[in-house]
Design a protein that fits this description.
heterodimer; A: alpha/beta; five-stranded mixed sheet; two-stranded antiparallel ribbon; B: alpha/beta; six-stranded mixed sheet; about 35% helix
């Protein structure tokens, strides 16, 4: 009966590290190259059902509708923000808009609150830059207080399209 | 006179274990943070910023992403078309959904519009979608830090 020389044998089957390290580095380089820091993105929901206009008597429980008008000049720059015909001050108009809406709907946003039953119709000029529309939607839908989002109104719709200004 | 010192050469190799550990950690990190959803994010679109834009907790069931460039063209399923020429593509999308027994009204159209795009065009885009039968819309914005 032969007893193997265990010590010598162990040395002969040494693991080949080089190919593994090569592959691992290739993987590492691939992931580093494809790595891209993307800012988190979020969504504002807008519902536009294709329903026909409601006929018959007006429902008393219907949502109260507030109109927000955003005006722009030919280049799409903001020129004026109106909440139900009242013009917001030119200095920080969206903050003023938010304050007014908070005065109307109050701070509580639970079920059955005024904020729940209020709908905003956003009426923008055709040329308005989209970032101002998002600013308006942001001002309407809520604010961040101490890192928490406080919701105001989340029922937002667009008014019928204004025609593009003729050159 | 030559001496082979194979045993000695083996012993002088440094210890690879910590380096491999580190490298695997790095690979694991990059694998976790890699974002494969980039197909829906065109670098040409510079999204508007909003402090309320937080990533949704639950992804949309049937998302359809339309990207509106500053020039007023729409990027959709790898094609670039003007807003007026979008309807045939949307009808095709609707047919695909109907083939899979999904109602178009349950699908969400995600609109990634450039900050400099015209709001009127965004509305035209939404109306084109509505004519085809889509009802739920979502305007996408980038999260704005520290305001």
């Amino acid at each position: 009966m032969r007893i193997r020389n265990v010590g010598r044998h162990k040395e002969e089957i040494r693991l080949m590290m080089t190919p593994m390290i090569d592959v691992v580095f290739l993987l590492l380089i691939f992931f580093i190259m494809t790595f891209k820091i993307a800012a988190p993105e979020g969504d504002f929901n807008i519902k536009m059902p294709a329903a026909a206009p409601v006929q018959g008597p007006i429902d008393p429980t219907m949502l109260s509708l507030l109109k927000v008008r955003v005006e722009a000049n030919r280049d799409g720059r903001l020129t004026g923000v109106y909440l139900a015909e009242a013009r917001m001050p030119d200095e920080a108009p969206f903050r003023a808009l938010q304050e007014r809406i908070r005065l109307i709907v109050g701070d509580d946003a639970g079920p059955g609150s005024i904020a729940e039953d209020t709908e905003i119709e956003l009426d923008c000029d055709y040329n308005l830059r989209f970032e101002y529309a998002i600013d308006a939607i942001t001002a309407i839908s809520g604010k961040v207080r101490d890192g928490e989002i406080v919701k105001l109104i989340d029922k937002i719709k667009f008014a019928p399209l204004r025609k593009a200004p003729q050159p | 006179m030559r001496f082979r010192t194979s045993r000695h050469a083996g012993a002088s190799e440094g210890d690879m274990t910590p380096m491999i550990d580190m490298t695997f950690q790095l690979i694991a990190f990059f694998m976790v943070v890699i974002n494969f959803a980039e197909a829906d994010q065109n670098a040409r679109i510079r999204l508007p910023e909003s402090e309320l834009a937080k990533p949704a907790d639950v992804p949309f069931e049937m998302p359809i992403t339309l990207q509106l460039t500053r020039e007023g063209t729409v990027l959709f399923v790898g094609e670039e078309v003007p807003v007026a020429g979008l309807k045939p593509l949307l009808r095709r999308e609707r047919e695909i959904l109907e083939y899979r027994h999904v109602k178009p009204s349950t699908a969400t159209v995600i609109i990634r519009a450039d900050a400099g795009a015209k709001t009127g065009l965004v509305q035209e885009l939404m109306e084109a979608c509505r004519d085809v039968g889509f009802e739920k819309f979502s305007l996408r914005a980038k999260h704005q830090e520290g305001t």
